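Researcher: Please predict.
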Amino acid sequence: MTRRITWTLLALTSVLLVLAVVPLAVLMTARERTAFRDDQRAATRVVAAAAEEHLSDRKPPTDMRRELDTAAEAEDCAAVYDVSARLVASTPCTAAQGEEAQELVGGVLAGHEPEPPENEGRLLTAEPAGEVRQPAGAVVLARSAAPRDARIAAIWGWTAVIGAAGLTAAVLLSVRLARWVSRPLSALDATARKLGEGALDERADVKGGPPEVRRLAATLNTMAARTQALVHGHRTMIADVSHQLRTPLAALRLRLDVLGTGARGDTAVELDAAQEEIARLSRMVDGLLAVARAEQTTPLPAEVRVDEVARERVAAWSPVAEERGVRLRASEGPALTAALGIGHLEQILDNLIANALDAVPDEGNVTVGHRRSAGSARVWVRDDGPGMPDGVKAVAFRRFGNPEASGSGLGLAIVHRLVTVNGGSARLEDTPGGGLTVVLDLPVWDTAR
């Protein structure tokens, strides 16, 4: 943002300077040229007035010589010609003589006003001595254009200095303005990112930046405080519910154990059925509490080695798989690191492997694999069990989404919540040849963290 604001203001200032300063410099240059030419013509007319008294009135050439000397002191070259274009008098220098001077004289004597030429840094002007229609002669004056060129160069030099100063001021102002706007926004972005990663006690600075940014920071802080209060309230409620439900269930199980000690016949059968219902209810309560905890989770991403965790969980579940006659293995894959909450990948794989072991028959196969895919860490658990109908797959990630599930029906809901809260995605696919494959796309760990 800082760079964009700086370049935008710099481009705008450059356009304004070009539109304002350059035309002004061009105008001043034109006026300088015009003033220089008019001043030279005025000097030429002074010499022509003195030459007219000598050429037409036959007065002594004293005044004419005095004006020629004055022109020579001003480093001008002047020459006086009679009506037949013959040189009458001149300054010591000969710049006002020659072919160009003769052409000017011819044009003036013919009643024209020829365009004064500029040759070798000198500008020549010619004026009639006497009336324009019937001149008694002509005066040519050559003046160096160096003073004019120096003033024009100074105009453009000052123009360049003003433009450079304007651009420098624009750069400094734009950088300061961009930082004034972008720094609070960057800090606000960092705060929002930390809040999203689970640091609910993080707050934004409300002192710097424009008023709109300060109001946004204050609103974000209010939202973060309310979110923190809600999350803490839900966590407290979950802990209370967990204690209040598990304690009476445990007491009820103990009472049934005591009653079942000496029971016989139908009574023993009924007590065993009651024990199974208590166990089922305990598993359901544990599953609901696990889902609730997962929904209230705001994890801080950590560096998790996907390949190592996959091998560890396969090794941990291998005795259970052998007991059930199921082949459980981890496929080979590259070293892969994901950004997940601590312990979340273990919990995800435990639920998926447990579901797969429950689904496949004896001599079935369950495979856990991983690879890098399009900037994400892809993990899958594949089985060759009975699979899942399309209608059930559409709602399988919801609580009790699969009514035919042998367990609590909450395992996939826990998996989906833990995956999505870490910024990943989960989906169900059919295994080629029959079965179900759960595919997870998890965020890759960024070394810049």
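Model: The chain has ten helices and twelve strands.
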